[in-house]
Amino acid sequence: AQVAPVLQEDPDAAVSAVAAAFRKATVRVPAGTEDVPRGLPARMVFADRELYDAMSAALTAQGVRCEFGPSPLIDEFAEVLGMSVEDLIVDKQLAAMKVDEGVLPADDDMQTWFAVERRLERRLAEAVRKDASLWTAQAYREYFGTDRGEHYFERFKHLSAETLYSRWAALDYRPAKGAATVAERLLEEGLSAAEAAMLRARLDHAVSLYRVVRCDRDAGIVEYEDLLLGGTITVDDPEGAEADMVGATLPARIFPAGGSRIAEPAGPPVEETFALAMVSALQELDLEFTPAGLRRGAHLFGRLWPAYETLMDIMMGQPSAADA
Description:
Elements: H1 12-23, E1 43-46, H2 49-61, E2 65-68, H3 74-81, H4 85-96, H5 110-130, H6 137-144, H7 149-155, H8 161-171, H9 182-189, H10 193-204, E3 208-216, E4 221-226, E5 232-236, H11 238-243, E6 249-257, E7 260-265, H12 275-284, H13 291-296, H14 304-315
Parallel strand pairs: 1-2
Antiparallel strand pairs: 3-4, 3-6, 4-5, 6-7
Helix pairs in contact: 4-5, 5-8, 5-10
């Protein structure tokens, strides 16, 4: 079995790769496939519909059994590249839309904007992972108010605590006075126009505390109330609308993407009963409830993790681990 990394939209490169594989000598002919010309496989699985449509008729005429579907080797191939299968698909989609050549997706092309967001998220996460200054006791104290970052990563793995910390570290943390953030470095190094637009949109919209006030399954929208600045904002989110989490309260960053918006979690979620407790906790941390104050105090939303842990321990009747 062979798998070849061909992600170009033009199928010519893929056809060339297949032809090159056919030219290789066949060690043995499996029983029952004697009628297949030497050098052709008895069975081929195509993970790409365009390539399947282009080649299956000719190959079938030569006795090759052609199938369309996920390749049994694609997961292994993705693992070698250090990327998920979804990421490989995203990169191919963006190449087809010529995003890397400076073309901005149309405002209503949310599929491509979401693909841009996914790849940008991957770039940010990779940059944070490689920067040792972001995984120190100093950085943990800035965000959690304690150097026990690994504890919160592990205990709240189910809430993606490490991912949310990584986002803050990429967008808001400066290891030293005057130092650039990871996001600023990426912009300086150069991103595609779409990724740069998405990243600037994130930076222009601070984290706030939101409560879900309406979910419309038919329209696929979720409406959030900003508990710190006031007002409501609507986000196109069919999955969130289907979940119907009315009353849920969470720190989030809501920013534009094309003609829509994305709501990105930035801290632990709580039920509506505890919404005012979250607001009070932020007040006690001296967070200023203004757009500028929320930007300056982005790290203070990380202090909600210890408060959340204390709340969970109390609800479960356990001694607070936050005091350990």
